[in-house]
Amino acid sequence: MKKLLLTTALIAIATPAFAADYVVKEVTDYDNSEKPYYFEPDNLTIQPGDTVTFVNAQEDTHDVMFDVVPKALTEAMIMGPMMEKEGEKWSYTFTVPGTYHFHCHPHEANGMQGNLIVGQASAPGETKTVSHEDMEHHMDGMEMGHGHDHMMGHSDEMAEDNLSQGKGVLNAVDVKGHKINISHEAIPALHWPAMTMDIPVAPSIDLSHLEKGDHVTFSLELEDNAYVIEDLKKE
Questions:
Q1: For residue range 130-173, what is the model confidence (pLDDT) as tens digits?
Q2: What does the DSSP assignment read for the chain?
Q3: What is the topology classification, in CATH, of domain 164-234?
């Protein structure tokens, strides 16, 4: 009997707890004027080994990028693909405990972001920040292959010259809030497909002469981990 109990105890110790699966929806809700874009839920606590699946809840453009992760994480980047169709999904299994923060790149300026705790929250100083520049370098490296640092540098120079340029049609102009909603063409240098999004505009730009339906060209500059329009002209 003692041998049977010992064997049962050893099996219990050797068998890991069942991993769980969680779903986070990427939501567009234009009826919610205060927060038209959001993750649901936007705060989640899971255990190491659990999987989170991000699902596009409708026909709109969303992705997910983790910009704060535990320092113990050795993976260069956690980011999903750009999703445009309802029902598209991307999953990631979290094995490193700690605090994570994520956002949707096209709608970060609208507050579409969330927090994830794996196991327990990281202590102060135990997380690291991943910038948009890091993300772009990671994407460039994936496209160019490993061991091409000189090509990476060339790409950075091109981005500074003209690859942050874009064009599109204005859907709304928020003069007081100093931002626009625009349906723009693809911007390959930033790995952005054609999409509709809100973008903040530099205070030096006068928006009073612009209105819905205007065709515009613009240039983007990275400021404090977010892209801001630094030049905006009507075509």
A1: 876 666 655 555 444 543 333 233 334 333 444 578 999 999 99
A2: -HHHHHHHHHHHHHSPPPP-EEEEEEEE-TT-SS-SEEEESSEEEE-TT-EEEEEE-SSS-B--EEEEEETT--SS--BPPPB-STT-EEEEE--S-EEEEEE-STTGGGT-EEEEEESSPPPTT-EEE--HHHHHHHHHHHHH-SS-HHHHHHHHHHIIIIITEEEEEEEEEETTTTEEEEEE--BGGGTB-SEEEEEEB-TTS--TT--TT-EEEEEEEEETTEEEEEEEEE-
A3: OB fold (Dihydrolipoamide Acetyltransferase, E2P) (2.40.50)
